[in-house]
Amino acid sequence: MQSSADVVIVGGGCMGASVAYHLTRLGITDVVLVEREKLLAAGSTGRNAGGVRHQFSTETNIRLSIESIGLLERFAEEVGAPIDFHQDGYLFLLSAPEAVETFRRNVELQRRLGLDVEWLDAPGAERLAPGLDASGVLGATFCARDGIADPNGVTMGFAKAAQATGVAIERDTEVTGIDVRDGRVAGVRTSRGAIQTRIVVNAAGPHAREIGRMAGADVPVAPHRRHIFIAQAPDAAAGAPWRVPASRIMVIDFDTTFYFHREGAGILFGMGDRNEPSTFDTTVRWDFLDEVTRVAIGRLPALEDASISHAWAGLYEMSPDGNPLIGRSPDVDGLFLVNGFSGHGFQHSPAAGRLVADLIAGRDPGLDLSPFSPARFAAGPVAGERYVV
Ligand SMILES: Cc1cc2nc3c(=O)[nH]c(=O)nc-3n(C[C@H](O)[C@H](O)[C@H](O)COP(=O)(O)OP(=O)(O)OC[C@H]3O[C@@H](n4cnc5c(N)ncnc54)[C@H](O)[C@@H]3O)c2cc1C
Q1: 260 CB less than 6 Å from ligand 1?
Q2: Tell me, what's the pLDDT at 239?
Q3: N- or C-end of the chain: fewer Cβ atoms within 10 A?
Q4: Distance of alpha carbon 306 from alpha carbon 302, whole angstroms
Q5: Measuring from atom 21 of ligand 1, which residue has the nearest CA?
Q6: How far, CA to CA in Å, does 152 sit from each of 34, 220, 350?
Q7: How many CB atoms lie within 10 A of CB 119?
């Protein structure tokens, strides 16, 4: 392994890979990406639902989506890898009057930024997603350019393109320490030797706080377990066709956070557990499936007779306000953060990587990054992102 580099990136998920790729676009290629697992995308990136949406509640997040989805649409030509991107839309279902009010305001914001977002009633929502039961839904929003992409494809696409221009990717290598001298990053220690560097990018997902601590920086990111279940149709010989959407439309019941989309011949679904405290545990809690199923069959009755073929859990990397931390650490010079994406990091990784690369290169990122400033919490509570699912 090389003993010095201009930049060391800690973590080989979608964020680390995107930062590496975007650095190379700016001519910065003396870069080492260090990943402790044997494969890239083995953390949260490999366990996510692949959802990609424009529908957010703040201008900065919407702009991140516009840029990111633009790149995902051009990914094959520009980055050079297939990512199985299907733009069948995201449908948000709203059953609480306060949510209706918030979403109405945000649809105006989204339209002002050039997005085509429709406002629907319950029958309109049911027409878009056959098999959906929209009882009690007071309103719904739909953006046809939202969709589902392959997180592994995106990560590998970025990583391979970065590698092709000289970035070293060191798998099976754990970062064990960060050396700081006179308040500035001086190097990284790993299970396979030390690398001298003046710039470290913390792209360690739910482990961002540990990496920050190694450098004496506070990175307020907490891990939270999230489950995904895959349901298969009951025996086809048993009778009527399975009443589920044929497209990959992503349906989100905003009040409960239950969501689903088609995954091959089956249905992928999940829901957050608001009562579970922060944890690094990713074992599947089968008792939670009963709770999810109660909500799930209310919205997609076809799930009642389905069998569960797969289940897994991964970690959301939650920040205190649902917005990421993108930029320089206020505690240590040379430490850059790209952390705390709170359940929507995959879809924002293309733009987030570009922003971090610009900051490292000393370029103007062309976006007001103050809502994502790693220093923002020191000044007291801040209003953040409302569409955290
Ligand atoms: C169930 C679930 C569903 C989700 N659904 C969506 C979705 O639909 N859309 C969306 O946009 N987002 C979704 N997310 C969120 C998304 O997966 C994350 O925001 C995103 O993957 C974060 O990427 P990352 O690269 O920062 O983190 P990770 O992918 O976790 O990568 C961090 C890497 O750092 C490595 N690492 C940690 N410590 C060290 C160390 N000491 N040394 C070396 N390497 C280290 C880890 O091994 C890991 O590979 C979902 C998440 C989960 C859990």
Answers
A1: no
A2: 66
A3: N
A4: 7
A5: 45
A6: 17, 26, 13
A7: 14
50 Cβ below 6 A of ligand 1: yes
Centroid of ligand 1 to alpha carbon of 12 (angstroms): 9
pLDDT at 281: 98
* DSSP designation for 132: -
Q: Is 126 helix (H, G, I), strand (E, B) or coil?
A: helix
Residues 353/345, Cβ–Cβ less than 8 Å: no
Mutation probe of ligand 1 site: the residue of 38, 44, 282 with most atoms within 8 A of C-beta:
44
Ligand 1 atom with the smallest distance to the CA of 211 is 41
DSSP 238-302: GSSPP-S-SS--EEEETTTTEEEEEETTEEEEE---TTPPP----S--HHHHHHHHHHHHHH-GG
Tokens of 245: 């959407």
Q: What is the mean pLDDT of each run of 10 residues along the chain (389 residues)?
A: 98 98 98 98 97 96 98 98 97 97 96 98 98 98 98 98 98 98 98 98 98 97 97 76 94 97 95 95 96 96 94 97 97 98 97 98 96 91 79
- Return d(Cα 320, Cα 343) in angstroms, integer: 13
Cα–Cα distance, 218 to 354 (Å, whole number): 24
Question: Who's near 362: CB < 8 A, 6+ residues apart?
Answer: none
Name which residue sits closest to atom 24 of ligand 1, judged by CA. 205
Residue with tokens 């350019």: 145
